[in-house]
Amino acid sequence: MPILKVTGVEEKKVLEVSEELINELENIIECPRDYFSIEFTNSKYIMDGKIVMPPTIIEVSWFDRGQEVQDKVALAITKYFKDENKECVDVIFNNLKEERYYENGKHF
Protein backbone atom coordinates (compact mmCIF):
# COMPACT_ATOMS: atom_id res chain seq x y z
CA MET A 1 0.00 0.00 0.00
CA PRO A 2 0.08 2.40 -1.97
CA ILE A 3 -0.43 0.42 -5.16
CA LEU A 4 0.50 2.01 -8.50
CA LYS A 5 -1.06 0.47 -11.59
CA VAL A 6 0.77 1.67 -14.73
CA THR A 7 -0.86 1.54 -18.16
CA GLY A 8 0.38 2.90 -21.48
CA VAL A 9 4.07 2.92 -20.58
CA GLU A 10 6.69 0.54 -21.92
CA GLU A 11 7.76 -2.13 -19.44
CA LYS A 12 11.40 -1.06 -19.86
CA LYS A 13 10.53 2.50 -18.79
CA VAL A 14 8.66 1.30 -15.69
CA LEU A 15 11.65 -0.82 -14.71
CA GLU A 16 14.06 2.08 -15.30
CA VAL A 17 12.21 4.59 -13.13
CA SER A 18 10.79 2.30 -10.45
CA GLU A 19 13.58 2.66 -7.89
CA GLU A 20 13.90 6.44 -8.10
CA LEU A 21 10.12 6.90 -8.22
CA ILE A 22 9.61 4.87 -5.05
CA ASN A 23 12.51 6.72 -3.38
CA GLU A 24 10.73 10.01 -4.04
CA LEU A 25 7.27 8.74 -3.10
CA GLU A 26 8.63 7.21 0.10
CA ASN A 27 9.79 10.70 1.17
CA ILE A 28 6.57 12.45 0.13
CA ILE A 29 4.15 9.95 1.65
CA GLU A 30 6.34 9.06 4.63
CA CYS A 31 5.66 5.35 4.57
CA PRO A 32 8.09 2.43 4.37
CA ARG A 33 9.43 1.34 1.00
CA ASP A 34 8.05 -2.17 1.33
CA TYR A 35 4.49 -0.77 1.47
CA PHE A 36 4.67 0.19 -2.23
CA SER A 37 3.64 -2.03 -5.14
CA ILE A 38 3.87 -1.28 -8.85
CA GLU A 39 1.73 -3.22 -11.28
CA PHE A 40 2.65 -3.03 -14.96
CA THR A 41 -0.34 -3.63 -17.22
CA ASN A 42 0.15 -4.62 -20.81
CA SER A 43 -3.37 -4.03 -22.09
CA LYS A 44 -4.55 -3.55 -25.64
CA TYR A 45 -6.77 -0.61 -26.43
CA ILE A 46 -9.17 -0.78 -29.33
CA MET A 47 -10.85 2.05 -31.19
CA ASP A 48 -12.92 1.71 -34.34
CA GLY A 49 -11.85 -1.88 -34.86
CA LYS A 50 -8.12 -1.16 -34.59
CA ILE A 51 -5.56 -1.61 -31.84
CA VAL A 52 -4.35 1.83 -30.79
CA MET A 53 -1.68 3.16 -28.45
CA PRO A 54 -3.01 3.17 -24.90
CA PRO A 55 -3.15 6.41 -22.96
CA THR A 56 -0.67 6.81 -20.13
CA ILE A 57 -2.65 6.27 -16.96
CA ILE A 58 -1.23 5.68 -13.51
CA GLU A 59 -3.82 4.67 -10.94
CA VAL A 60 -2.89 5.04 -7.29
CA SER A 61 -4.86 3.05 -4.74
CA TRP A 62 -4.12 4.23 -1.22
CA PHE A 63 -5.47 5.59 2.05
CA ASP A 64 -6.23 9.30 1.61
CA ARG A 65 -3.34 11.49 2.72
CA GLY A 66 -4.84 14.88 1.97
CA GLN A 67 -4.78 17.18 -1.04
CA GLU A 68 -1.28 18.59 -0.48
CA VAL A 69 0.38 15.15 -0.41
CA GLN A 70 -1.78 13.93 -3.28
CA ASP A 71 -0.70 16.90 -5.42
CA LYS A 72 2.98 16.19 -4.70
CA VAL A 73 2.56 12.50 -5.55
CA ALA A 74 0.80 13.36 -8.83
CA LEU A 75 3.62 15.72 -9.83
CA ALA A 76 6.29 13.15 -8.96
CA ILE A 77 4.58 10.41 -10.96
CA THR A 78 4.07 12.72 -13.93
CA LYS A 79 7.75 13.70 -13.84
CA TYR A 80 8.84 10.07 -14.22
CA PHE A 81 6.41 9.09 -16.99
CA LYS A 82 6.00 12.21 -19.13
CA ASP A 83 8.36 12.55 -22.07
CA GLU A 84 8.41 13.94 -25.60
CA ASN A 85 6.36 10.98 -26.86
CA LYS A 86 3.58 11.43 -24.29
CA GLU A 87 1.62 14.64 -24.41
CA CYS A 88 -0.59 13.58 -21.50
CA VAL A 89 -0.09 11.56 -18.33
CA ASP A 90 -3.22 10.92 -16.29
CA VAL A 91 -2.87 10.14 -12.59
CA ILE A 92 -6.00 8.81 -10.90
CA PHE A 93 -6.30 8.36 -7.14
CA ASN A 94 -8.56 5.70 -5.67
CA ASN A 95 -9.00 6.36 -1.98
CA LEU A 96 -9.46 3.19 0.01
CA LYS A 97 -11.27 3.02 3.32
CA GLU A 98 -9.42 1.41 6.18
CA GLU A 99 -12.45 -0.64 7.20
CA ARG A 100 -12.64 -2.10 3.68
CA TYR A 101 -8.95 -2.99 3.33
CA TYR A 102 -7.95 -6.29 4.89
CA GLU A 103 -4.52 -7.72 5.48
CA ASN A 104 -4.42 -11.29 6.72
CA GLY A 105 -8.12 -11.17 7.49
CA LYS A 106 -8.04 -7.99 9.58
CA HIS A 107 -9.00 -4.50 8.48
CA PHE A 108 -6.96 -1.42 9.30
Describe the structure.
By secondary structure, this protein is α/β, with parallel strands linked by helices. Helix content is 31%, strand content 32%. The chain has two helices and eight strands, in the order βαββββαβββ. The strands form three sheets. The protein has a four-stranded mixed β-sheet, covered by helices on one side. Strand 3 and strand 4 (50-52) form a beta hairpin.
Element layout with pairings:
Layout: E1 3-7, H1 11-29, E2 37-40, E3 45-47, E4 50-52, E5 56-63, H2 67-81, E6 89-96, E7 102-103, E8 106-107
Parallel strand pairs: 1-2, 5-6
Antiparallel strand pairs: 1-5, 3-4, 7-8
Helix pairs in contact: 1-2
Could you list some keywords that capture this structure?
two-stranded antiparallel ribbon; 2 helices; single chain; 31% helix; alpha/beta; 108 residues
Overall pLDDT metric: 93
Strand order, sheet with most strands? 2-1-5-6
SS-derived structural category = alpha/beta
Q: Measured on Cα atoms, how large is the radius of gyration? A: 15 Å
Instruction: Give the tally of β-strands.
Output: 8
**First-last Cα distance:** 12 Å
Largest beta-sheet characterization = 4 strands, mixed
Q: Identify the overall geometry.
A: globular
Concise overview:
The protein is an alpha/beta fold and 108 residues long.
